[in-house]
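[09:14] KT: can someone run the structure on this one? pasting the chain below
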Amino acid sequence: MRRTGLLLLVLLAVGATTLSAQDPPEPTRVYAAYYQVSFSDLEEWIGIWNEHTAPLLQEMVDEGMLEGFGAWMHNTGGNHNFRQAMRGGMDTNFDAAWNRLLERLGERSPEALERTMDMIQVHDDEIWNLDTIETDPAGEWKYAYDNMFQVDYADLATFPTMFEETFGETLAQARADGLLAGWVTESHNTGGGQYNWKVILLFDEWDDIDDLQARFFEAAPLSHPFWGMFRAHRDELWEALPAGM
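[09:31] RB: done, structure tokens below
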């Protein structure tokens, strides 16, 4: 798979995605922060993110501290219902960026910062290496379907090749047919979680997700060697923040 140029990658909400006036370098890492808040608080949480957090993250992009950002809300699968992402390169200091964000949020609105902290029930974060990207740089997608795999370290170098050989043609055809908007693959870098490789599939329509899954199993029945390459699997479906929230 080829790597495309600058783009709005997954792990960020399409509606909240922003780039600076001058396009930043192509990102190579993604810092993802996951939150669990009460369902009754979710609309308020997203409102605070849009009103206060997103503008501050945009400032940090404009200043060159980050290369992009965004957020998704939970749809199905997994333990968290809101995911925020910061994008950067190998030299990006995500710890410094995180501290800067909290400092500026406290200066901008102490009430918003306090309320945000009050709403958090569970928090987790991870950093992933961005390995391959195959999607429209100007694309906007409603759903991101994360397929995560636990692969033995000894097999980690060959697993992406096995995946591409098994499903590359299927993915390309699905995209040509308009069933799939694109995909991204990432490998685990550090922090949380038990999975070390994932492919994120991008969709415009909910019904297309099941249709693509059917094509996957047509390409590789359960007897296929690919299914013996990993020890555990998990998937989550995330949705772009609804307009107006």
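[09:33] KT: thanks! Helices lie at 42-62, 94-108, 110-119, 159-176, 207-219.
[09:34] RB: yep, looked fine to me
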